[in-house]
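I am writing to request your help with a piece of structural work I have in hand. A protein sequence and the structure tokens that stand for its backbone fold form the material at issue. Please examine both parts with care and let me know of anything in them that strikes you as inconsistent. The record follows directly beneath this note.
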Amino acid sequence: MSGAVTQDQWQAARGALRDAGDRFVDLISGARGETPVTPHWTVAQMTAHVAATARLYASMVEPDPVPLPVPGLGERLQSTTVDTVADLNEVFLAHFTERDLAVLGEQLRADIDHILRVTADRDHTAGIDWLGGSYPPLAGILAHLVNELMIHGWDIARVRRVPWEIPPAYAGLYLDLFVMGMLGDGYDHGRLLDNDEPPRERRIAVEFRSRYTTPVTVVLHKGLVTSEPPGSAPDIRLSFNPVTLNLLMFGRVGTARALLSRGVAVTGPRPWLLPTFLRTLRAPGPLRAPAA
């Protein structure tokens, strides 16, 4: 799938990153850093998390990546799974100590500028050494950062009680370029999606369809997650608005709300297999308390 990323998608991801970054910085410029966003995170801490992610990606996308000054970071990046991302966040933020919103906003803009500048003429399908031994394409890294800005912008806008639009086309980049780009022709390397469950013999195929994404079937079989074109009869069909799906995957809206709003519709002959499927193809859990 990573080789299927088109030039139009690449340019869409670049434009979305520029716009999302500018809007996020504008959002925090009117916020109070000490305002709680979650039981453990303030606006300043959440902004530091987003800015730290952009700083990490600014290093990763360099032709010759320069390690960040975080002891043991390289080893932690390689051993991280979806379920231990919170541990990585704690370590990273303990060394990324800035909490002033104005300074964080400037740093975030500068790192996004850097990412866009150094990747302008790069092969957007080239794999980037990311977390847990996974290699999403360069375009997927930009899409992931767009999603970070959109999801955490949504968090902060809620407590500020101000509007925050997540364009469906932006949200769709996360599935198309990052998730499917990471799966490639088969998730047969790395440990990002590892969990404690034994591999299941039963094949589970889920078809994803949206107005804003490329139709795709994702298959879980014997612990291996692969993507393939739609066509064969799936066990489950997911029709979705990418905004609702992303908010659902990252725990911002509940399953009942997603279904009742028709942002996500589940059909197919075996919909009861979806929870088993999602225990493997899952998003990181809730953020824990970072360094003060």
